[in-house]
Structures are given as C-alpha cells and as structure tokens.
Specification:
Elements (H helix, E strand, L loop, with lengths): L1 E6 L8 E4 L9 E6 L2 E6 L24 E3 L6 E3 L5 E3 L12 E3 L4 E5 L1
Antiparallel strand pairs: 1-9, 2-3, 3-4, 5-6, 6-7, 8-9
Bound molecules: FE2/S2 (inorganic) cluster.
C-alpha cells in the first residue's frame, strides 16, 4: 500500500520537507529534493537515541544546502547516501525511509 504525501513540485529543488509522524508514533521522515530525484530518511539522528534532527520545521539542511545537518550536535550527512561526513555520528548513517517519487510526480510512503 502507498500513502500519498504531496506532489514532487510542492518541494522546491534543493529544499527539504518533513512528513508524519507515522503509525501513531513520534517518528517523522523527511525528503530532500535534488532536481527530479528525492532522498528520504527517517528523522532520527544515529548519534544519540534517534533524536529528531531539525531545530524548526523542515530545517534539515546546512546553510549551503549541500548537506543534511543535525541541530543537536551538528553532525553533517551526505544527502545522497545519508552517511555521516562530519561530526558526532561519524561511521553511522541515516536510515532510509520508504518514500518514492512516482512516474506522475507524486511522493508516496510505501508499505
Ligand atoms: S543527536 Fe544528532 S549530532 Fe548528536
């Protein structure tokens, strides 16, 4: 089953957007748009206890917009892979979220 989240064009190129929480829990997911591609992760920093990463709604990127950043201790993650490149979560990665862009330009949560 797939749950509609939004249209791809509802997210500006290079921006991030949060969705959820899902399944009655407190865990959100977020998407970073890069052109026609998206990269989706659970909003849970691997550094410490699945901490939510944004300091305000949709604030998942650094000032340059080229890395995902955790507001708690500043760990930076590669947008394309979720791998930590700098800071407190080195050696760890964000967990991918099952969000896909469909052929007709919709973002859906799978499963
Ligand atoms: S909780 Fe994210 S860097 Fe520490």
């Amino acid at each position: 089953m797939a749950r509609f989240l939004c249209k791809l064009d509802d997210i500006a190129d290079g921006e991030a957007r949060a969705f959820g929480p899902f399944d009655g829990g407190r865990t959100k997911a977020f998407v970073v748009r890069k052109g026609e591609h998206i990269h989706a992760y659970w909003d849970a920093c691997p550094h410490y206890g699945d901490t939510p990463m944004a300091w305000r709604t949709d604030a998942y990127l650094n000032a340059a917009g080229d890395r995902i950043v955790c507001a708690s201790h500043g760990a930076e993650f590669e947008i394309e892979t979720g791998r930590c490149l700098l800071g407190a979560a080195l050696g760890k990665s964000l967990r991918p979220a099952p969000i896909e862009a469909t052929a007709n330009g919709e973002l859906v949560l799978k499963g």
